[in-house]
Fold this protein.
Amino acid sequence: MLSIQIEKAAKLKPLPPDESQLGFGRIFTDYMALADWSRERGWHHGRIIPFGPLPLHPASTCLHYAAEVFEGLKAYRRPDGGVQLFRPRENARRMIASAERLCLPALPEEEFLHLVTRLIQKEEAWVPRAQGASLYIRPFILGTDETLGVHAAERALFGVILSPVGSYYREGLRPVGILIEEKDVRAVRGGTGYAKCGGNYAASIRAGTIAAEKGYSQVLWLDGVERRYVEEVGAMNVMFKLGDRIVTPALTDSILPGITRKSCIELLRSQGREVDERPLPVDELIDALEGGALEEAWGCGTAAVISPIGRLAYGQQEYEINGGRIGPVTQSLYDTLTGIQRGLLEDPFDWIVPVN
């Protein structure tokens, strides 16, 4: 296990005075965790240091060739004041898969957990207590080779930064409008779609910006080859209630294997609901909208947890889902997942990892 050196900050920042105004990813805690990697030495020099700029060589491969991957998870304050994580091992394993795709060194699962939990223990006071707020955790790996050659990483940096956050969307749990994107694509088969890397998100910004200008919160991505099959909604996985069944796109190498998605499926199946993981043609979705078979739709991801969809636009036509209201399955998923995450409900799945 990596030894961790701790450098004390000269001055600590004041905690946010109003946790209802946190926003998302705008405030950062006093410390961050770092570790270095080289092909000769492996992972070494674990440390917790005051939060601040990273010294990067101008030729670093992360800056020129997008040699980077990241993760997103949260720490939650329990009613008894303790702090806990939700399925952090899943994040560690997904980061290993992402790093392999980008030819970056993978931080072993136990080292990932060690660095993340040690930093949260150091920054426990920053875990919010307000309802709906949490401490967002952003681990990342950067390629730091000081050369302009394109090759697998010889040097890398692992880091973790923390940010107390409120609701991801200003609308809260109110249903949002989604625009089905017909021009841009998020990822293609054989690409990096299943990896959590910045390039995938950079490719999504243009379509998201255009959708926002038209009054929609996110876009619904179609596959990058035929533009026929539903893949993801914005930066989240997506699910639909079609009659008695829940349908979600089957995982491919162009779809991110979401941890909240996985949790939703396990929770729904534990309740006896049918969940179909299969290719979902957009034409089938539109037919279900027009015929009334589509009863509910929602996105699911770490940042928002569950985001109900109330409007769906395709071409020149806009459709309303469930009268623009959140549906009972969507509400139940949100209540149950957030209840487990915050220690308000029992955890029958062994998803929770206490920090302290």
Q: What stands out?
A: The radius of gyration is 21 Å. Helices lie at 61-64, 88-101, 109-122, 198-202, 205-213, 259-270, 282-291, 328-341.
